[in-house]
Amino acid sequence: MRDTTKHQGLRNKLAIVLQSKGIVDEKVLNAVRKIPRHLFIDSSFEAHAYQDKAFPITANQTISHPYTVAFQSQVLEVKAGEKVLEIGTGSGYQTAVLLELKAKVYSIERQHELFKKTSLFLPKIGYRPKRFIFGDGYIGLSEEAPFDKIIVTAGAPFVPKPLLSQLKVGGKLLIPVGDKEQIMTLFIRKSAKEFEKHELGDFKFVPMLQKKN
């Protein structure tokens, strides 16, 4: 669990790479500079932890490219104190970014092995969401709705209606939609029944799985 000045230097370099790719939100870049990403992955990948690469983690899942995490975080425009629902806790890296943005985070993971590992690991390094939930992301978290923002970190074959219904008016849902490749799609809730939709380019995520495992 060591975090050294060398790691810090590599994080600063990663932030410069992300800036060159279009990440301009200084709060997001500061989160990248601060969070020890090497602790979120297998130690055998540590030398590459601050490259803009995805890596395998527990339960056949991945930790996303830093660019993808930063891009989603920038698009959501998270403000301090906002309630954010995260679908797919995964390694917890995106969760940590949301917490650095001062959001109140509710995070759902359906892989039990990953849920146990990440819900123990994140508090150890100082990151404490409002709730970790072992559950099905397709149904969201109705008892805590409405949310200011909802972020989905896995590829969904369709947009789950419960997630749209759990958004506040003015809220944003960001979800990669598609099977093998996904289109990053932003929904902004304009009224009880009206949503504005924006397509933000192609990405590749692991699939969003239904039910608990």
From TrEMBL:
EC number: 2.1.1.77
Keywords: Cytoplasm, Methyltransferase, S-adenosyl-L-methionine, Transferase
Biological process, per Gene Ontology: methylation; protein repair
Domain of life of the organism encoding this protein: Bacteria
Protein name: Protein-L-isoaspartate O-methyltransferase
Localization per record: Cytoplasm
Statement: the UniProt record of this protein carries the keyword Cell membrane: no
Active site annotation, chain numbering: S64
Catalyzed reaction equations: [protein]-L-isoaspartate + S-adenosyl-L-methionine = [protein]-L-isoaspartate alpha-methyl ester + S-adenosyl-L-homocysteine
Family, per entry: Belongs to the methyltransferase superfamily. L-isoaspartyl/D-aspartyl protein methyltransferase family.
Organism (species): Tenacibaculum piscium
Its biological purpose: Catalyzes the methyl esterification of L-isoaspartyl residues in peptides and proteins that result from spontaneous decomposition of normal L-aspartyl and L-asparaginyl residues. It plays a role in the repair and/or degradation of damaged proteins.
HAMAP family: PIMT
Transmembrane segments: none
CC terms in the record's Gene Ontology section: cytoplasm
A single GO molecular function term of this UniProt record: protein-L-isoaspartate (D-aspartate) O-methyltransferase activity
Pfam families listed in its UniProt record: PCMT
UniProt key word Lipid biosynthesis: no
